[in-house]
Amino acid sequence: MKKIILAIIPLMLMFAFTGCNNAATTTLNIYNWGDYIDPDVIRDFEEEYSIRINYEEFATNEEMLAKIQAGGTAYDVIFPSEYMVESMIQRGLLEELNFENLSNYENIGNEFKGLSYDPDNKYSVPYLWGTLGIVYNTKKVDDVVDSWDILWDEKYSGQIIMLDSPRDTIGITLIKLGYSLNTTNPNELEEAKQELMRQKPLVRSYEVDTYKGQMIAGEAAMALAWSGDAMLLMDENEDLEYSIPNEGTNLWFDTMAVPTTSQNKEEAELFINFMMRPEIAARNTEYIMYSTPNVGALEYLPDEIVENEFLYPKGNIKALGEVFKDLGEFTTEYDRVWTEIKAY
Q1: Where in the chain is the domain with CATH 3.40.190.10?
Q2: Which InterPro entries match (predicted)?
Q3: What is the three-state SS of 93-136?
Q4: Torsion angle of alpha carbons 68, 211, 327, 293, nearest 10°?
Q5: 8-129+252-314 adopts what CATH topology?
Q6: Distance separating alpha carbons of residues 328 and 325, to the nearest angstrom
Q7: 29-46 residue pLDDT tens
Q8: Rounded to an integer, what distance in angstroms lies between the CA atom of residue 64 and that of residue 218?
């Protein structure tokens, strides 16, 4: 949901994942977010197990769901976010995992198990997690950034970038108004719509990935951003900082799961188990810069990553904010509201 897509990555993936292991007898179809795995990890798996990887990328959970429902490609491993796991379980689209094949599950921290979207830990294992906040340029912003209200400050008109993602942008607006980001109250949703329409004249653009170049170049004052993206941007521009507003945030989890389309379930679980090796999880974490739920991986990560409180906050992480829930049929109301906001 929240990844930097570099122009060179698709070419790297094309050549790296289709040109090796010609002798492999099994092909795993992996469907993941863009730029959401270290390419070397894929190559290492292929070489170790003589299993070829056919790797495809999606931009949103909804795109992934539509592709699974449409059939055509028999995907073996997918990377849905928490609310999509919940939705796919209800739709009967996920296989129950055989944890006898997932010995490395013991490396996952207890606070990341038994969560509401998969309470019995039957269908998914956590991959990465993070928060939603504001990345801002300290040379352009002279106010304290501790509230979502600053995204509505006319002082920064034309300098504010919002995510082109309805659940996220509407969600932080609901939090700003004192409501749940999972509300199914039509009046609260309408109020959030009006608030975003009031903000729209101040917004430079609604984007998911392409805004990052603008923030690195110092062309905008602030942007709604996922934590890992913010960390990568801060590495590129020392004037950038990240803040989680006091009103609370979206605490999100991306997972690994096996869809019912899989024709290679045992090999799919082999891949998931490989991804939960501490050293492999650490490599992916350092490459992507999101937080890992893999406790063993922390020993392989540099101190500056593990000690970064935006990536690994102290205390109970659940106190940071809410986790998205599947809204069922009410999701269409969010889509309608977002369409009206964009057309306003």
Answers
A1: 8-129+252-314, 130-250+322-343
A2: SBP, Sperm_putr-bd
A3: CECCCCHHHCHHHHHECHHHCCCCCCCCCCCEEEEEEEEEEEEE
A4: 80
A5: D-Maltodextrin-Binding Protein; domain 2 (3.40.190)
A6: 9
A7: 999 998 899 999 999 999
A8: 33
